[in-house]
Design brief:
Order of helices and strands: EHEHHEEHEEEEHEHE
Number of helices: 6
Strand order of the largest sheet: 1-10-9-6-2-3-5
Shape: globular
Largest sheet: 7 strands, parallel
Number of strands: 10
Length: 218
Amino acid sequence: MNTIRLDHASQLASFTKEDLAGLAASKDGFLHIALPGGRSAAYLVQGLLQLHDQILRRVRLYLVDERLEGERNLDTLLEAGLGQAIAAKRMSMDQIRIPVVGERLSDTGFDRVYLGVGEDGHIASLFPGSWPDARIDQVILVEDSPKQPKRRATLSYSGLSDLTKRARIHLLFLGESKGEALKRFGKGVETAETLPCAFFLEYRNQTTIITDLKEETT
């Protein structure tokens, strides 16, 4: 498992641009990219929009979770620049999929997955105590999230397993508040029951940690 250390979270934009440009050069057809909501989403969108329009037209974006109350994660992505790109006809809304409870998010595996990791190790809207989950739906309803808002639609563990088999996965530990989660992940002894991001410990060869924390933090 590789670790990439950034001097500042804003460098995630240039990393994303280079990563997706490399993907576009190595693969024909559509580029299937999973994105989080939250603060890191803005940097990911900034990097994405630095790509040539010919590449942008090949992109298919998938939100890994969506808030069902209050400000939506989709709104965050649109405000980060996707809305302007759509208005300028560089992209279209048809290129963005949001999770809907009981529906499949995708029938095609992801090429890239960018997942923000929370202070408690949560990914998407999968929080500690939510594993194991026997439901096989790709997208499930969360009604009692420990973070506001309470109601969310999220890609399930089953959905992650189904859609990330051949993906390159980037776990984003950005900000000092993520230091403890990164330490715990680095020890490699917990399961997704107590530390949801530990789900990807079985994907070591496919996973990269991206952090702006200093090395001694881990």
